[in-house]
């Protein structure tokens, strides 16, 4: 019976999260595998490439723990089920710290997944009707990021001092009377059938078969962008030699070529 339950969980993609929550704590032993929590795409793909092709040359063993949402990787980290994670940008990490009271350490940026505005109903942002419904991520950092992207494309105006975690309260002008629908980031691609516009995080767009550089009506620019995803650990582990080796490999020329070849502009190496 237990085997049947395990197989059933694996078939719906839940086994990794269950295993992570029930596994033993990550080890600080420098010779032990480095446990890293990731989202599947592109983080898991990139880390799998490093594990399979580059890690052995650095004497690094990597254990990948995959989660499909944005909450569990930081929970796994603070509970010391993993030693590092690779899925988030600095504003998201800071919001987590503020809410949880836990301190994390952003070690180094790796790549940018451009946030994009998508629609199945409209061909251009110039076609946005009055009273259009816009789905946005419901976590503070990415909601604010979404509003800044809409503002950069003239759909709304934000206060000049609007923070990274801007909300509707920071909107000073909404000439089209847009209605905002906050959803969990993973649900945003599915919302395209029900809303006029959806502002979708790059990883979930790619998983849904959308290319930010081709399918988005508008997408973030890489220049000066503060939303690069990178390696995060606990403050006491930021000097762990295994973490340093991981960062070296993730920022190396082999990973740059892998990302460029595989994602063809939908994922950008952090500058």
TrEMBL record:
GO terms for cellular component: membrane. InterPro entries: Lipoprotein_NlpA (IPR004872). Pfam families: Lipoprotein_9. Keywords: Lipoprotein, Membrane, Palmitate, Signal. SUPFAM superfamilies: Periplasmic binding protein-like II. It is found in: Membrane. It is a lipid-anchor. Belongs to the nlpA lipoprotein family. This is Lipoprotein. It comes from Actinomadura syzygii. The lineage of its organism: Bacteria, Bacillati, Actinomycetota, Actinomycetes, Streptosporangiales.
